[in-house]
Structures are given as C-alpha cells and as structure tokens.
Amino acid sequence: MTDIVEPSHRREIRSFVRREGRMTDAQKRAMDELWPCYGIAAPTEAVDLAQLFGRTAPCVFEIGFGMGDYLLSRVVAEPERDFIGVEVHRPGVGRLMHRAQAAGARNLRVVSDDAVVVLRQGIADGALDEIVIQFPDPWHKARHHKRRLIQPAFAQLAVCKLKPGGLLSLATDWQHYAEHMLEVLNAAPGLCNLSADGGYVPRPATRLKTKFETRGERLGHAVFDLSFRRL
C-alpha cells in the first residue's frame, strides 16, 4: 500500500506487494468505462477536494480498500461525506467502481497507486476528516517488520493530513501488529488514543464485517480496533 523512507539511507521500503490477480470481465469493463467517473491518476500536487467532488464536504481517505466492501458500505450509508480510496490491486478497484455505479454513488474517487505517496503528495495538510486502514499487511516475520505501514514517519504524515479533531481508524487481526500499532501511535505527537486505558476500542458501528474478517475469526484470530484523534 505504501512506500516508507528510511532516514538513514533515503531508500524507499514498500509495505505492499503488487498481486494483480485475474480480472473478471465486469472488472475489466469497469476499469475501461468507469475510470473517467471514479478514477484519478496519482496526483503530484495537492488535489482541490471541492473541485474534485464538486462540493465542500468532510473527506475520508482509506488506504488499501481490498475488494471495497467496507468502503462501499460507507459511501452508500454516508452520502454527506466524500471518500477517496487507494488500492494497488486492480481487480479490487474494478469491482468497487462497478458496484459504486450500480449503487448510484457519486461521492467516491479511487486511485490505484502507492497510498502513502498519494497521501503525501496529493492531499493538502489538514484536509482530511478521517484516515482508515483496515487489516494492513502484518509482515509477520521479524526481518520484514520494517515494511509495516504503521511506523513513526507514517504517524507524523497522518497527523499532518488530518484536520484538528480528525480520526485515524485502524483494525488488524494480528495481535503482535496491534501491539506495534499501539506503541507507535500512542507515542506519536499530535494523536490522542480514544481508548480510556490507552488500548483498543470496540468495533465501530461503521466498520462492516468483511469476508476477510469472518474467515480470520474462523481461524481463531481476534480483531483489534484502534482509534486516534488528531489534537
């Protein structure tokens, strides 16, 4: 989903692997026909959100929306908000656009590129009301932990892009990664954990339980929700 710069070497470390997969005919048609309506190229400068959506409204930014079930559920349920979803998996992008059109959604835009680059370059500071990260790759092997998205540098970036009072909402089904998230984000200047004890929060009503999560529960994976507010 993202590139993270190592300060010591100035080298980009990706926290995602591009797995293209097979696209259905409907997904291919969506990519060809619906991209002009929903898709935007990876921006190289801050996007004017009011111009992009044709109105001024609260904006939610989701990193790595997968097949788009959660994102679409919020797009449909919250027409008063605008949503930007970033995902490198093109079949998921095509599926989301196909379903968004069927739902008549107009408050959605998608980018198929590196989410942190999009966030860093394409979103103005203080522009977002919420950043959502659902089940990011845990990179569970110790030698791969440096690839995890949630790092101090990312926390600083999120703080910059959120409005005061904006939310950083996360979920993972890997306990070790959840503990890592808590350690990083509890220490991040400008963020306040909404859990009274500095730990996890109950599953938000807005978080749709996806097939991915249901499968994890069958395997005995607990799900950990985190919520932070920008001060």
UniProtKB/TrEMBL annotation:
User: Entry's CDD domains?
Assistant: AdoMet_MTases
Q: Name one GO cellular component term.
A: tRNA methyltransferase complex
Q: Which GO terms describe its molecular function?
A: tRNA (guanine(46)-N7)-methyltransferase activity
Signal peptide start-end:
none
Q: Where does S-adenosyl-L-methionine bind?
A: E62, E87, D114, D137
Top EC class of this enzyme: transferase
Q: In which pathway does it act?
A: tRNA modification; N(7)-methylguanine-tRNA biosynthesis
The record's section on PANTHER family has: 3-DEOXY-D-MANNO-OCTULOSONIC-ACID TRANSFERASE/TRNA GUANINE-N 7 - -METHYLTRANSFERASE, PENTACOTRIPEPTIDE-REPEAT REGION OF PRORP DOMAIN-CONTAINING PROTEIN
For this chain, the family text in UniProt reads: Belongs to the class I-like SAM-binding methyltransferase superfamily. TrmB family.
What does it do? Catalyzes the formation of N(7)-methylguanine at position 46 (m7G46) in tRNA.
Q: What is this protein called?
A: tRNA (guanine-N(7)-)-methyltransferase
**The encoding gene:** trmB
